[in-house]
């Protein structure tokens, strides 16, 4: 299965692609949000171009592992996108992935949102391998 991982934010959507066969997540340039319709069209182009069969969305749980306001917002956004794209949807805990992505940055110009999406996807691919 080939996945498109999303790190959903209000202004940007971090993107990464990867599959069960290669077991390697790759960050792709983040999408600057404009409107739901424009976001769907941009994501549809990525889905077609990358041969994606499923969405993987990072769910921002609280440090206690609970769903707060941001997780509820993320679920609503993800479900609407998955429905419009006609793709199955899977969620993964994304706690601390942005922090981890920022640590890898080491002062370089870096797409933190897409790096966070790649971390979530790589964790999923690594887990499936075990």
Protein topology:
Elements: E1 2-8, E2 12-19, E3 26-32, H1 36-50, E4 54-59, H2 69-85, E5 89-93, H3 97-105, H4 112-129
Parallel strand pairs: 1-4, 4-5
Antiparallel strand pairs: 1-2, 2-3
Note the beta-strand portion: 25-35%
Q: Which CATH-level-2 architecture?
A: 2-Layer Sandwich
Q: State the domain count.
A: 1
- Tell me the name of the CATH homologous superfamily: YqgF/RNase H-like domain
Helix content: 40-55%
Sheet bearing the most strands, described? 5 strands, mixed
CATH first level: which class?
Answer: Alpha Beta
Which class of secondary structure composition applies to the elements?
alpha/beta
Gyration radius, in Å: 14 Å
What is the helix tally? 4
CATH topology: Nucleotidyltransferase, domain 5
**N→C terminal distance:** 16 Å
